């Protein structure tokens, strides 16, 4: 007499695996494989890009910025003013120079900070951390820190303050205006 218990265990295990992966008996193996590959590629692309489907609300963005600024010991109103000037609190904003998200991090800056600029929390963390470092670098001089946020520390040091670039001068003025407005409210 032949012992079929081993074969029965294998068949039972195959059925468990089919149930676990919701294998539809009506589909062909090729169709199942194609679906699995498509699902895997979609998941891989989302992880690779990590781009949010849509923008979050301004209120939620502000909450994230305030929480991050407080945690890093940065004036929340200043961080909010930078975010307003940079992206108007939009995570899907991309500048013509390639700066990404709410705090408008350049990909190279984001990489140096070890953050993903396409993830809102990491973008804000990177931006606020960078702002904090600039404030420390310039002994709390907000104007120099803002100029460096826009034009880079090398330009600020080369020119001994706000560089003579119209874009940077207007940027500093705009952020300071937002900052003062937020301080009043």
UniProtKB/TrEMBL annotation:
Residues 65-170 form the Transglycosylase SLT domain. InterPro entries: Lysozyme-like_dom_sf, Transglycosylase_SLT_dom_1. Pfam families: SLT (PF01464). This is Transglycosylase SLT domain-containing protein.
